[in-house]
Amino acid sequence: MVPATPFLLVLFLALGAHSLSTEKCSLTGSWKNDLGSNMTISKVRETGDFTGIYFTAVSASPKKIEKSPLQGFQHLHPLSQPTFGFTVNWTFSDTITVFTGQCFVDDNGKEILKTMWLLRLHADKLGNNWKST
């Protein structure tokens, strides 16, 4: 009689293997979002850290939009679609934005970043803290 646990594991691996991406998603390079913002990420180092430039197409600041530096970190593990996070220090305003997300490879081999972000405005006093994030 064949033990059920190893058989189920082998069956799971056989059936589930097709859904795992064999293509590795790389953050390095230029990215453009659906609003027209552009981001360029330099090479991701062996430690997972990276730097780059973000040029947003959207801003509530009355000042001219400028390229802003970013610093981030990618989770290094054997999976091909890594999670990451980075911070943008906006050079034209008193705000900072943090992004977190994951790099995916779709069925056509296209790399896609899915992110969430949180923007922090400068608060002039403690009482205004609640409306600054």
TrEMBL record:
Compartment(s): Secreted
Signal peptide: 1-19
Cystine pairings recorded for this chain: C25-C103
Domain of life where this protein originates: Eukaryota
SUPFAM superfamilies documented for this protein: Avidin/streptavidin
Key words of the record: Biotin, Disulfide bond, Glycoprotein, Secreted, Signal
One term under GO cellular component: extracellular region
Sample GO molecular function, one term: biotin binding
Family per record: Belongs to the avidin/streptavidin family.
Function: Forms a strong non-covalent specific complex with biotin.
The protein's assembly and partners: Homotetramer.
Record protein name field: Avidin
Organism: Dryoscopus gambensis
Protein encoded by which gene: Avd_0
